[in-house]
Structures are given as C-alpha cells and as structure tokens.
Amino acid sequence: MLTLDTPLAKVVGDRTAKAMAEDLHLHVVRDLVRHYPSRYARRGEMTALTDLQVGDRVTVLGQVRKVDTRPMRNRRGSITEVTVGDGAGSMRLVFFNHKHARMVVGAWGLFAGTVSSWHGQLQFNHPDCQLLDESTDAAEWASAMLPIYPASKNVSSWVLQKSLKLVFGSPETADQLLDADPVPGDVRRRHGLMPLARAIWLKHHPETPEDVEQADHRLKWDEALVLQVTLAARRRAAALEPGIARPRRAGGLADAVDRVLPFQLTDGQREVGEALAAEIAREQPMHRLLQGEVGSGKTVVALRAMAQVVDAGGQAALLAPTEVLAAQHARGIAGLLGPLGRAGELDGDPEGTRVTLLTGSLRAAARRAALAEVADGSAGIVVGTHALLSEGVAFADLGLVVVDEQHRFGVEQRDRLRAKGTRPPHVLVMTATPIPRTVAMTVYGDLETLTLRQLPAGRGGVSSSVVPVAEKPGWLSRAWERVREEVAQGRQAYVVCPRIGDDEPAAGDQPEDADGAPDGTDPAADPATDRRPPLAVLDVAEELRAGPLAGLRVEVLHGRLTPEEKEARMRAFAAREVDVLVATTVIEVGVDVPNATVMVVMDADRFGVSQLHQLRGRVARGKHPGLCLLVSEASTSSSTGVRLAQVAATTDGFELARLDLETRREGDVLGAAQSGRRSGVKLLSLLHDEELIAEARSEAAALLETDQGLAAHPELAAAVAALNAGDRADWLERA
Ligand code: ADP
Ligand code: MG
What we know:
InterPro entries: DEAD/DEAH_box_helicase_dom, Helicase_ATP-bd, Helicase_C-like, NA-bd_OB-fold, P-loop_NTPase, RecG/Mfd, RecG_dom3_C, RecG_wedge. This protein is α/β, with parallel strands linked by helices. The protein has 3 domains: 9-166, CATH 2.40.50.140; 253-452, Rossmann fold, CATH 3.40.50; 462-650, Rossmann fold (3-Layer(aba) Sandwich). Helix content is 39%, strand content 17%. It is built from 26 helices and 22 strands. Magnesium ion (MG) is lined by residues 298-299, 404, 590.
C-alpha cells in the first residue's frame, strides 16, 4: 500500500531512492507526485533525423537498429555504438561503459543531446535517453504527450516515469490526493478549478496541450493561495502589534531640515513626504516601499521622515547596502544638517541631533563611541551597513528603519532590524529598481508601495549607446576620446568592469557587495562555451593609463580595498582629484557625484538589466547630460546584444524591471527564503500570472477574514504551516 507519506525507498529501492533524495530532493511519494514534467515530447515536435545540423541541441525520436559493444582501444572500459533510425534518416549514439542497458534492437526511444559529426555521420555522445515503454503501441505514443522529467545522472526521466506509474496505480494514494487539496471547495468553484488529484494526474498524463494548461492553472492556484495566505497572515500579525506614534512637531529638526535644503522639493517628494508623515504619526507601524527612479531624490524624503521621528523623541536608522554608500549618506546628511547634526559638540546646535555612522570597519574605539551614542539615544540618526544588525547594537528608542536600495537586503535582515525596537518601528524601504506588481504582491507581500515618478527639474538626463566591439572595433577608441573630451570640460568619468583582477576568487567583488557578482543573471551565458574571463579593473586601469587615457588621473575602486581606502578614493573622486574612476559594481548603488558625466561599462553583457540601469544612474545626477556606453563583444543580433540594445533604448524603469524579470530565473526574484522547494513555488510565474496572483491574494484575505485560524481548512493550514516551518528552519541556519 502506497500513501503520500510512503518513503520512496519502498517504491524504487534504496539505491534509487537515495539518488532521488540527493539529486532531486524527493523523499516521499508526496514529493514525487509534485515532481512535474519539465516538458512534454510529441512526435510532431521532434526533429526529424534528416533535418539535424551539427551543433543543434535537439530531441529525436528513433528506433534502435543496431547495438554494437566493444572494448575501448586505448583505455579500459567499453564503448557502445547504437544506430537509430526514424524511417527517413539515421544517426549514431555513442555510450561508454554499458550506460545503454536497455537498448535493444527494435525499441523506440527519445534521444536528446547535441549533434556532432564523426567520419561524416551524425552522432550524439552519451545522449539523454528515454525508451518508450515496450507496452505502448506505436499509434498511441505517436499522438501522446510524453512527459520528460527533470532528471539527474543517476535518476533518469524514465525511472521517474516508472515510479510514478506505481504511485498512480495505488488507490490509497489517489484517495489521499483527493483529500489533500489545499484550495477550499468554494474557491475552486468560484474560479472553475479542478480538484488537486485530477490536476496532478493530468499533469503527468496529459493528452493535449490544453490538459497541461488546465492542470497548470489549477496547480498554480494552490501555490499562489498558500503563499498569499502566509503573507496575509503575517500582515495581520504585524498590524495587531502596535508601534509608537511619532507625530510631526513644528519648530523641530524636521522644519530645520526643510529650511536648510538647498533646493525646492519636487511635487512628488512633497506628496510622498506627506503620506509618510501621516503614517508615521499613527500607532500602527508603517510598512512602505518607496520606489523612485535613480536620482529622483529619495534620500531627502527619507531624511525628512527621520527628522520627524527624532522630533518625536525617537531614533531613526538608515541601512545601506555598502560601506561606501553608508559613508556617503552619513556625510551627506551631516553636511546638510551642519550644526544641527552635531548636538553636544562645541559648535553644535542643542536643538539638533547627532548623525552617527556605524559600519563593520570602524576601529574599536570609534565603534565603542558610536555604540554608546546609539544606546543612549544621543544619535538620532544612525547610518550604517548590515553591521547595524549585529548583536551588540542596542538602540535607546528605535522609531524608524529606512532601508536603502532594498534589492540587496533580505526579508530576514529587515525583520532583524525591526526587532531592535522596543515596539515595532515604522519601516520605509527604498528602491530605484521598480518592482513589478506581482513581485510586490509576493516577495514584498507585506509592503504597500509609494512611487516618486518625477525627477528634480534641470537634470541633464542620460543617453546610452551600445559599443559592439566585435562589429565596430573603432567605436571603442571613440569612447575613450569621449571620456577625454568630458574630462577636458572639467567633468569626470567611471569605467566599470565585472571583475577586480589579480587572481581573485572567480565570484568577483565579494565582501560587502554580496550580490554584485554579475553572474547568474545572463541567460545567454553558456557554460559550455569557453568565454574568456571578464575584464578586470586592475588590468583595464593599467591599459587605460598606459594608452587611451594617458595623462589623466585614473584611480581604481573595488571591494578588496579596505573601507578606509574605498572611502578615501570616493572622497578624492568627489573632490575632483581623480578624473576617471575604474571600478567594480561597488559604485552601483547610490554613489552621488554630480560632476561625473560619462560611464563606460566594459563587458556590459556580463551585467544584469537592473544592474546596468543602476550603474548608469551614477552619471545622470547633475545638470550636465550624462552618457553611458555599454561595451560588449556580443553580436548585436544575439539575444544578449538585443537585451543591451533594449537597455540602451529605454530609461523607463518599469519597462526595464519587466525586461529584468524576463531574463532572470524566478528563483532569483523570489529570493532564497521564498524560492523553489521551500515555498512550493514551481509553476507560478511572477511574470505571467499576475491576474491569478491578484485573485489568490483577495481570496487569501477573504479566507482570513472569515476563518482566521484556517480551522475549517486543515489542508490549507498545513501547507501554510509547512511554508512557515521552512522559513523558520532557514532562519535558524543563518543565526
Ligand atoms: P536617489 O533617489 O537615486 O537616491 P538621491 O536622493 O541620491 O537620489 O538624489 C539625487 C541628487 O538629487 C542628490 O544630489 C540630491 O541632493 C538631489 N536632489 C534631491 N531632490 C532634489 C530636488 N528637489 N531638486 C534638486 N535636486 C534634488
Ligand atoms: Mg539613493
């Protein structure tokens, strides 16, 4: 008797079960039935053997004609050549060491691999194989959709299919699946969804593409509903825990900030500011996501909110993703506040507060002093990196947490900072990378969004061009000329490279730019093709100094420098003592030097879409027009080249966010805690299932309205509990 909880060892034997667990994370029958086919093969969609081209990665359907095994000549082991044909053409499959056990003459199978050629004959070297079940007759499989499962070296799609056959043969499992449906019956009826058992069966045994579509729709629903119920429950819990109202007070720091601002606020800044001020004045903790284009002036919006909290007797923390950015924020805020930011010092204004920088690299004495100011409350504004999250940091009365450039911060880190208040503080998360609605509803399910659409007047704007060096080699020298021209006009330039150089670990700029490594975001990157290593800061800087930019003041900046060195070099650049800064993505977020007008991004194809958008935001910050040159060896007609052209063609953050989502894997978007296995999100797509997610969100809210403990829906409650348990486990691992 098989049930959903039967260990797979009882179904497939110990060895295969072990491989299933290790390679595919499948442990019990429940996991196996949720291991969906990644695609379906149909005869009509197969490439005919006569149409094969060397280099194609294809699946062919053929019948085994000949199997010939012999020992290898120069090595131990054997080689097996299998000839398959499809009636029109034929090809050879080559296997080593009896990896072909089921190849018998007459069998039909699917073979997938990359076509190569040997002595004029087309062949696959050790292709993926799936022999068709001997019992299926030819006519049946000709029209059937053959499920192809995500497999591994030790667990073939074939084995998975056989195991599933056993499972589906068990009436107990089928019954259990009927009862295990997390989507309540009335929700199913309202949205015309088939029962879970039917959907799972169809997903594994579809006859038509419509079957797959319907099954997917149904299965996505339970993913979306479980996720949304989880998020809605968290929102409710957060709303029930009161924070502290920090109403605006006239004549305090907030008014003083408005007085000293060297510019007029934009209408957008004013409106968003009012919305924030009103929410901070309430007891219910604020949870806001502030989206605003690069350069839209989010910092000052945050500063005004922070000042309000200080006026109400609380402290505000500004969390930045890098030390460079934290230092810049602290410097900028302190500079703006002047004596108002130096309360307690000789020239300080007693009405003001203190702006304290707290980063991991502070020396012991400075750190102690900073910690003391944070703990006794004299630091009203605390700026820092993730060092703020560490154990030893205690706030006197944390009232507001501002997280800058949130895409570098996980939900967990945000929660950890939130826990530092005696009561939950207000939270403002800021990002320049617009977040598609679906992502806001899932990953940031607990954040309501505010948007700054307008840029301050008088911005030069930035224009971007691709420099396709493979096709237009001359354009690169033209790019360096442009840099020289800008420098001659008194402007400055950035040159960005994907790597530091000098045999660093391949991942790149690690220490504090944890996700700055520009890899994993490029779907065009084919690990099989040997691409040269990405260009490196140290090499490029040297070449520029010796050649195209000789005579200019060229400096480098990267994550391997000490924080003091980084800080010193940023300062020198800001003070115009450096003309050209050759850097890694350390400068990606928030660095603000309005005099910099050109950016040359080397190997631009190695960066993700939103990274490029962030990067070029560094040169659109002043009144002079900015120029961003995306240098790439990719051909303009390749998918990578097209993507770069799209980035160059638009500065609309929302369009770019969409493009970004298209080019990233969903898991990256969902983030570690909510991706893949743990969240059970396998089919749901943030890009394509917006409507479904929105519907699930409102069903989730309704469910919690009427049935708060989910008492009437034990299956749903169990699924939600499993998701939360996963999170908790994740949390423990990290702590
Ligand atoms: P971001 O939204 O990208 O974080 P910042 O807050 O760094 O942008 O602001 C970019 C630049 O614009 C800063 O130099 C800031 O002082 C300036 N700025 C902000 N608001 C205004 C405004 N209303 N008018 C003119 N300049 C502004
Ligand atoms: Mg910023």
